[in-house]
């Protein structure tokens, strides 16, 4: 298999069939497969995906038992993809199928392990664009992403990198974080970004916060090192202040009197303690979940027969 197209599907009953049909036409010159992963959709996406698998020999369908999240669904798809190149595509038709060939041709030069798409103009809602900018800025410092690289969900990954990514067994996958743990040999190519043809984005404040915490806590020691430096700075400041207060007391020139200094010390110390306990709690929680044996996804049903035939 030369090319695998992994599509996480969530409430896209009206777009996934036209997208699949368009992919059949665009990729006719390649040996390819389309891996549809239904991420617990509440509409009839599962039935539509099942019909597509029955209709096309190139389509394989996996349905998860509940909504695990986009990255978990993508990781599931990567575990089942068998292509030499794996392209991750959104289900909303905003990534033009023709652009897949642009990513493939860039990858065929052998210059990059991963090829991201970038857009001259994005047709996302302003809130999603804002969230993307926040996450991209954060990942520059947390996972070592180049500042000028946009981490698009529409990307191509070589087989060798995917084989390393799918070794992850924790419940909190962040695909771009896993990519940068494997390779820094990444590039980008400009493609068109279309407006949504149906529905609305599933990008919410809750998902943005969850992604922020996942990136901030789960894929780098940078946060805890920042707080360690901050704690050391506060400790030095406290020691210097104590020394100044002591000199003032010995020279009968007290700068802060009575409950003022007590309240300042208690409030400052309590704030620092709570902040550190919160960060450590996030780390310990992630560590506990990662070692609890919980899978990143649970398959409801899959197409093992098609995979066996494709491999043979």
Automatic annotation (TrEMBL):
Keywords, A to Z? Cell membrane, Glycosyltransferase, Lipopolysaccharide biosynthesis, Membrane, Transferase, Transmembrane, Transmembrane helix
Q: Which InterPro entries match?
A: Glyco_trans_2-like, Glycosyltransferase_2, Nucleotide-diphossugar_trans
Q: Which Pfam families does the record associate with it? A: Glycos_transf_2 (PF00535)
Major enzyme class? transferase
Q: Which domain of life is it from?
A: Bacteria
Any idea which GO molecular function terms this record carries? glycosyltransferase activity
Identify the residues that the record assigns to the Glycosyltransferase 2-like domain, covering every copy. 4-165
Q: Which segments cross the bilayer?
A: 203-222, 229-250, 256-280
The answer to whether the entry has keyword Disulfide bond is no
EC number(s) on record?
Answer: 2.4.-.-
Name used for this protein in its record:
Glycosyltransferase family 2 protein
Which organism encodes this protein? Spirosoma flavum
Its organism's taxonomic lineage begins at: Bacteria, Pseudomonadati, Bacteroidota, Cytophagia, Cytophagales
């Amino acid at each position: 298999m030369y090319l695998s197209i992994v599509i996480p599907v969530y409430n896209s009953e009206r777009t996934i069939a036209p997208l699949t049909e368009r992919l059949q036409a665009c990729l006719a010159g390649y040996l390819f497969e389309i891996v549809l992963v239904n991420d617990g959709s509440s509409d009839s996406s599962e039935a539509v995906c099942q019909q597509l698998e029955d209709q096309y020999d190139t389509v394989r369908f996996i349905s998860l038992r509940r909504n695990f999240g986009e990255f978990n669904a993508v990781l599931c798809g990567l575990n089942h993809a068998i292509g030499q190149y794996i392209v991750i595509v959104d289900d909303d038709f905003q990534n033009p199928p023709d652009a897949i060939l642009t990513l493939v041709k860039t990858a065929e030069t052998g210059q990059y392990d991963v090829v991201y798409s970038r857009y001259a103009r994005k047709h996302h809602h302003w809130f999603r664009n804002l969230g993307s900018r926040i996450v991209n800025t954060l990942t520059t410092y947390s996972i070592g992403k180049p500042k000028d690289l946009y981490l698009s969900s529409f990307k191509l990954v070589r087989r060798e990198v995917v084989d390393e990514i799918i070794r992850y067994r924790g419940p909190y996958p962040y695909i771009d974080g896993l990519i940068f743990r494997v390779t820094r040999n990444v590039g980008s190519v400009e493609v068109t970004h279309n407006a949504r043809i149906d529905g609305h984005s599933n990008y919410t404040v809750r998902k943005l916060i969850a992604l922020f915490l996942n990136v901030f806590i789960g894929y780098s020691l940078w946060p805890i090192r920042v707080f360690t430096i901050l704690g050391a700075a506060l400790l030095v400041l406290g020691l210097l202040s104590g020394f100044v207060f002591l000199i003032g007391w010995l020279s009968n020139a007290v700068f802060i009197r009575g409950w003022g200094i007590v309240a300042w010390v208690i409030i400052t110390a309590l704030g620092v303690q709570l902040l550190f306990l919160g960060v450590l709690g996030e780390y310990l929680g992630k560590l506990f979940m990662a070692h609890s044996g919980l899978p990143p996804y649970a398959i409801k049903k899959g197409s093992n027969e098609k995979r066996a035939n494709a491999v043979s």
